[in-house]
Amino acid sequence: MIKANIDETRQIIHIEVSGYISSREAKDFLNNYKQMTRELRGSKYSLVVEPYIFECEEDDDIKKYVYRFLRVVIREYI
Predict the structure, then answer these.
(1) In this structure, which long-range contacts are made by residues 24-27, counting pairs with CB atoms below 8 Å and at least 24 apart in sequence?
(2) E strands in 1-78
């Protein structure tokens, strides 16, 4: 499971990762995250990622999706 919430009052983007994550779920999360944060000024928000014990469908998925996620986050803050 991957969940993201935006707390506009505290200016925090909170992401929680746990359980089993399929390749499809990871891809959907990235697309939803891009849509969610499109209107936000990244430099005003803090990113909080809370990882719990999780497992991916493919071992390579962790590397691939973390890299893609970081590319999205870095673009927002530049």
Answers:
(1) 25/1, 26/2, 26/56, 26/61, 26/65, 27/65
(2) 2-7, 12-21, 46-56
CB atoms within 10 A of CB 47: 15
Question: Residue 70: how many CA atoms within 13 Å on its side-chain side?
Answer: 6
- Answer whether 12's CB lies under 8 Å from 48's CB: yes
Give per-residue pLDDT as tens, 22-70: 989 988 988 888 888 888 776 788 888 888 888 888 777 777 777 776 6
State the burial class of residue 26 (Cβ atoms within 10 Å of its Cβ: 0-12, 13-18, 19+): buried
Q: Which residues lie across from 32 on neighbouring strands?
A: none
| Per-residue pLDDT tens over the stretch 2-22 | 888 999 899 888 989 899 989
